[in-house]
Every structure is written in C-alpha cells, then in structure tokens.
Amino acid sequence: MQIRQPIVAVLGHVDSGKTSLLDKIRGTGVQAREAGGITQHIGASFLPSEILKKVCGPLYVKMGGANQEIPGLLVIDTPGHEIFTNLRARGGSAADIAILVIDVNRGFQPQTNESLKILQNRKVPFVIALNKVDMISGWKKNPKTMFISQSVKEQDSFVQTALDELLYNVVGTLSILGYNSEAFYRVKDFSKEVAIVPVSARSGEGMPELLAVLVGLTQQYMQKKLDQTEKKTRGIVLEVKEEIGLGMTANMILIDGTLRKSDSVLVAKRDSVIVTKPKAILLPKPLDEMRDPRDKFRPVNEVVAAAGIKIASPDLDGVLPGSPVYATTEESTIDDLKKLIESEMKSVFIKTDTKGVI
Ligand code: GDP
After folding, report:
1. What is the torsion angle, in degrees rounded to the nearest 10, for the CA atoms of residue 213, residue 219, residue 223 and residue 226?
2. How many of the other CB atoms lie within 10 Å of CB of 234?
3. Given ligand 1 and candidates 11, 14, 20, which is best to mutate, with the most ligand atoms within 8 Å of its CB?
4. Of all atoms in ligand 1, which is nearest to the CA of residue 13?
5. Angle 18-31/49-56 helices, nearest 10 degrees?
6. Residue 322 has what pLDDT?
7. Alpha carbon distance 154, 143 (integer Å)
8. Residue 234 DSSP SS3
9. Which of 11, 15, 140 maximizes ligand 1 atoms within 8 Å of its Cβ, making it the mutation to test the pocket?
10. If both were cysteines, with which of 170, 171, 289, 327 could 263 make a disulfide (CB 3.0 to 4.6 Å apart)?
11. What distance in Å separates the CA atoms of residue 122 and residue 118, rounded to the nearest whole number?
C-alpha cells in the first residue's frame, strides 16, 4: 500500500473560530520546526507525521498513528464553506475529512447546520472542534500542558460541569439530527460516534488531541481511499485567476496520483471540457528563497498527491472553480476522461434552498 496524506478542511458558523484554528494548526507546525517543519502548498499546509508525532505525543500511538503510517495531514488553509459549495463534481469534495467548528458558548448556529448538511451530502466524515473553551467562566489554562483531557481534569468542578452541559447540548442537537456523538475521551467506537474535541484556538489547548483524532480516524477507516495503488490522477479546481508573469492559472488540490508537466490535463468550462498541457506546475517558494514578493512560485516537473498546486496555461481562461481535474500520459484515455468529467458536471448538486445551500 502507498498511503497519501488525508486532506482536511475546516468549516462552521462565522466567528466560531475557523481562521484562528487554522492559524493555530499552522503555528503548531511552525513551533515544532526542528522536527521537519510544515511545508507550504498553494492554499494548503502540510503537517508531516514527524510533527504530528511530536505534537500529539503518546496519543499518536494510542490513536493508531504508529500502524500503517499516513505521511501527514494536508490542511486546506481557508475555511471551507465555499470549498464545498463551489464544487461541482458528483459527490466530490476536496476534503477527505472535515473539522466542524462550534463555539462552545453558542452551540449550534445557522451555518453549523448548513455545514452539517454539506458534509452529509458529500459523505465527508468529520470531527467537532468545540472551540473557545477558555471563555467558559472560571476556566484556567493549565500552563504545563496543551492536552485538553488533562486540562479538563484539573478544572474546578463547576467548570467541568459547565463544559459537560455545553457539550451535551451539542450532543443533544446532533442526536436529533441523527448522529451519535460524544466527547472524544469517552468515545468507545470512533466508527460509530462523532468525536467532539474541546479546544481553544486561542491558547492551543486541545490541539494535540484534535490532530490525533484526525490521524486516528483517517488511518483506521480510510486506508482504501488513501491508497495510491492504481489511482487515476485527479483533483479539483479551487480558483482560476490571472497572475503577473504567468498568465491564466488555476489553483487546485491534487487529490490522487502524480501530475506531470507532460500530462494532458482535462478540466471543465461552462459548456465544454478542455484538454491542455500545463505551461508550468507551481509550488510556493520557501520564504527564505523569496527575494522579490512577485517571485512567489517555484516550478516543478511533477507533483505527487495530495498537494495544493497552481498550474499555468492560457487555455485555463473560463475554467469553472469546482471543476474536476483529470490528467493522463496516455492519449488513448482522453476521450474516456472527457466523458467522466461531462457526467460529473451534469450531476451538479441541486440547490435545495435560496441561501445556496446544497
Ligand atoms: P471565523 O469567522 O470562524 O474564521 O472566526 P475567527 O477565527 O475569525 O474568530 C472569531 C473571533 O473569535 C476572533 O475575534 C477570534 O480572536 C476569536 N476566537 C477564535 N477562537 C477563539 C478561542 O479559542 N478563544 C477565544 N477567547 N477567542 C477566540
């Protein structure tokens, strides 16, 4: 087996702390730099397994991190509502797993429900980050640990009760919506219960456990999906834009396979599927090599999934964000891939209400 890194997206209600959580995840990687550092992709950050091991400590092994190792986690850098709603591919999603962020003091809010519907439609498994625990009245940050399970045990009992009450409000709402859920430290079977991880994106408490749960879930239940043996090269377009010096470009998540500069790349416009040869495949330059801010990208000849990349080609003008991407070295497969994209584009998700929720 050749397991690729799972792709993680973050979504939830406005102000629940999605951006702060993403910053914290990146910060966690930066702090553990001596262990290998995080690698910047286009629109995503990669946390290699050495970093996860370091951050998660003994929990990494306990969650199954040591077996059949995933190479790390690729976290999409921007909060995800539009990452999912834009996507036109049938059942397609740029993410293998999601973090649904809920503000602990506010509980379920309108966009929490919307996010849940999206995840349900796309069949994306998720973990709940019950954020802002530091705002629970009486909460004391434990200076010695970032592990929330430890921190909770050492809170005054009225604080523990308050957290449990808020947590069980969320469990109750989820139950009405058809999900079994539980605080991750009480979950018996991660395949049957949605894990709720209390966190603070401000203090960083709970981050080790949140990452460990993601590693554990993807490792135990997604092996087949992540295995790269005989996978087609495919991805999803996130954004199409003109870049100075490069012309038309598309930012995309490469989900499976290897993309080579010599490949024929297929993507969809409004009325047709096009075949193009990328002029360049680009990754961000490491910060210390960036002399001029306009000189942001480094060209590569090939890239292996999962990755956030930019491709450049004049043919990309008019390509739809959310379009599936397929690539091949074999001319003979182009027609079949074209048909595949056409059928995926035909089965566009039907909007079910006026707010554009799918
Ligand atoms: P988003 O709209 O979901 O991306 O939310 P933001 O990350 O922008 O956060 C909204 C506000 O909540 C900001 O003022 C953050 O500083 C604050 N915030 C986010 N996470 C936490 C947290 O864990 N604790 C506290 N006290 N504030 C937080």
Report:
1. 70
2. 23
3. 20
4. 3
5. 100
6. 85
7. 11
8. strand
9. 15
10. 327
11. 6
Q: Which amino acid is at 214?
A: L
Distance CA 87, CA 248 (A): 20
* Predicted confidence band of residue 358 (pLDDT cuts 50, 70, 90): very low
Q: Check residue 269 and give its pLDDT.
A: 92
- And the tokens for 236? 């999803």
Looking at ligand 1, which atom is closest to the CA of residue 200? Answer: 23
Dig out the tokens for 154 from the structure: 């050492």
What's the one-letter identity of residue 243?
A: E
* Collapsed DSSP state (helix, strand, coil) of residue 222: coil
CA–CA gap between residue 319 and residue 278 (Å, rounded): 14
The pLDDT tens digits of the residues spanning 112-133 come to 998 998 888 888 899 999 999 9
Start-to-end CA distance of the chain, whole Å, equals 35
E strand segments, the chain: 7-12, 39-40, 44-48, 72-76, 97-103, 126-131, 181-183, 194-198, 233-243, 247-256, 258-260, 264-268, 273-276, 280-284, 297-300, 302-304, 307-312, 324-328
Q: Is 17 in the pocket of ligand 1 (CB under 6 A)?
A: yes
Q: Which two structure tokens, joined as six digits, stand for 7?
A: 């792709």
Ligand 1 atom 20 nearest Cα: 17
Q: What is the per-residue pLDDT for 57?
A: 82
Give per-residue pLDDT as tens, 32-79.
555 456 778 888 889 988 888 888 888 877 776 566 578 999 999 888
What share of the chain in percent tops pLDDT 70?
87
Structure tokens at 202: 């401000």
Residue 130: phi, psi to the nearest 5? -90, 95
The CA 15 to ligand 1 mean position distance, Å, reads 6
Q: What is the ipTM of this complex?
A: 0.99
Could you report the per-residue pLDDT of 243-292, keeping only the tens digit for each? 988 999 999 999 999 999 999 999 999 889 999 999 999 998 876 666 67
Average pLDDT of 302-306? 96
Whole-angstrom distance, CA of residue 119 vs CA of residue 274 = 29
